[in-house]
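quick one, two chains, predict together pls
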Amino acid sequence: MTSWLTRGLPLCFLSVSLVLLLSPLCEGILRKIRAAIHSRKGPPLTQPYWDLLKLLGKEDLRATSGVFCALLPVLTLASVLVLAMLVPLGTAPPLDSAGDIIVVLYVGAMSSIMIIMAGFASGSPYAAVGSSRETMMLLSVEPTLAVALAVGAFKAGTLTLGGITEWQVRNGPSISMAVAGVGFFIALQAVAGKLPFDVAEADQELMGGPMIEQSGPRLALFRWAMWAKQLVLAVLLVELFCPWPHFGIYPLDLIATALKALAVLILVGLVDVVNPRLRTDQAMAYYMRVAVSSLAALAFAFIGK
Amino acid sequence: MQTTDQGITTRVKEVITARSNGALRSTAQPHVDTLHFTIEKKVLPAVVDGLVHELQARFMTSVGTDKRSLTGDFGISHLFSLDRDHIYVIIESGVSEADLRIDSITPIVPGANWAEREFRDAVGVYPEGHPDPRRLLLADDWPEGVYPLRRDVPYNYQPPPAEHARPELRPPPPGTSVLPIGPFYPVLEEPTHCRLFVEGETITGCDMRGFYNHRGIEKLGDSVMTYNQISHLAERICGICGFIHSTCYCQAVEKAAGIEVPARARYVRTIMLELERIHSHLLWLGIAGHIIGFDTVLMQTWRIREPVMWISEEISGNRKTYGMNTIGGLRRDFPDDLKPKLMEILAVVEKESIAVRDAIAGDTTLLARTKGVGVLTNEWAKKTCAVGPAARASGVAIDARVNHPYAAYNEFRPRMAIQEWGDIWARVLVRMDELLESIRLVREALAAIPAGPVCAEVSQEIPPGRIGVSVVEAPRGEAVHLVMTGGENRPYRWRVRAPTYQNLQALPAMIQNETIADMPITLGSLDPCFSCTERVETIDRNTQQVRVYSRTELLELSRKKTRGGGMR
């Protein structure tokens, strides 16, 4: 217990504050890249911070009453931050003892479910359609995520994320983990709400979907949660499937992870900017194929590749 | 000017004489390509049936005119086009005040639906047997029994404020719920109200209420403004194809008055019309990309389009709304020294457009969103009298530049871009082909442009009682203007029909059984222009700016504002 207080607790603080502070910057970098491909100048890198600040300073208008609805934005951000503490960041996860890949899957889905509930609760038909689309996307993406994590657990013989990373560092790249990693990356595109899979928010069809009735500080928290989530999942991707080079020196590993995660996000951003939006049924069919293909990773893992 | 085959004129006369069964009152040929028949209203359906089924005439629009001061009754004219024979046929019937009814032709020509509702609203002649006789044009709080296009209603009449005014809405079919698109909707730049009846995500039907932009431009034209002023009003009907409307109006008056436009003016009109098509198609492609979330296409096509706007500004003084047209030709000549620059710009636009076309043709996600989606079948395209790229993408070979050549299109025949499948992708392909074809046309016109005057002397008063029909192929399809000349230096009646007016009527058939996600792009693929359809004018009167900014300065200022909020 004392060892957790001296090691785990500071790491928790560090993970949470890094995710909170850096996720708007990542979003800023993504916006810059999108602008470059559009032949635009783009907003300054710090714009997401100003967006948050402005939204947080606005009046809190609610479409619905009820304590639970009022708490939804806070709970959404909180669930993402819990996820941040369960994910390795340069070293074993701060809450490694508290949760394995199964907990990660549940906590990861929590924020999506909160957003779905916020949409249904707001009473707008656009939000209702957006929420039902988000539900369908969540259901289509989860199998791929689960298979990818299961491959890691199978290879490393442990359910903890820290254990899988450690095994990867020790044993080097393998075919099964590479295939699983690709599956995870494709799933990340949808979980981060990026094109061609941003069917739930679909600005031009649903005007933001579940988010349509959200404004001011509530919108700020939802936004922040979504930016944080894409960063945390990118970190999870690189830590599980590409933890090399591993220096063994914590600050160096931290910086390497951060840079690799940024690279992953940039890749996600590039896919986003060169694709139009799929229809929900097309996106779901796509993920069904991805889930089936990612079973190949399990097969490779069984034969020891 | 093209010549009309005498044989077809005789044939049209024969068919109408036979179908009218002795009720043909008069026959006239107001212009070499226009035939005008006056019949008794009781034989109207029979005559229309003969025109449509025996002569394959295509319905264009209807005009309701208050002729009580001339003939004692209301004139209802239906305008048809015989595309292959290059002639227009006008069928007019008088409706007396004692019996304000006329048989509806919508059961024969479904595309006449809105046109008939419009003359009901405007002059109060009721189309009997119309399947959907709800209000179309007038606002919901406009009083019953006041028909704005009647001559005794002053142009500045203000109805008393009404309370509890509501549109007549169709109830959704059982088992469906209503998803409103509009009146304000983010992907539509203008208001319209489309109520989708949906089962889950599938659209089973829809109900439309539009005309929120109606501002009575036609009324202004026949009660306040003069011939030469109207060309400027016509140009402001649309913010994208303004030159098309002003050309179309001027041509209608020129035809009615028998004014011969100098060759150079016809060439310059052709060049400007095609430049409008180039920038409009690029604009459309960008918006279509934006609708399906492909903002990279939007940003790139609009960047490619921008030099066309700049050269238009150098030619006319304005990016849009050139103000170049007048009755008899042009108010402003094309500066010959801009030719090389325009050629250079065309080369760049052509190269970059081809690059964009090739990029999107290889995008599988984009193909998945556009192929087989929003299909307008050939049969429905003909029934609803769809026009422009929407019709051509469904295999209907109509193009006003070919069917009714105007300006210099007799000298440069455009190659019609036709596709068969009628889906959104086909409409994309048609527009991309047309874009490149327009570049060719501008090049040829530039190379062959003759010297000389650009405006005919119009010394005599324009005689009253003449009729002129003019059609211009706008980027969205044909725009139709019909002018009946009057006294006091203004038209007695000026009728405008924009292409979207017909194409929107085809929309319900296109979105049937599609999903909600396909609705915006399907509507967008028509390139709808509500202000055209509803004939609106907007004027910005806030800026009385004296300082002149250069383009670079303006760009810098807007960037500064984006960055630091310095100008707030």
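Chain A has a mean pLDDT of 88.
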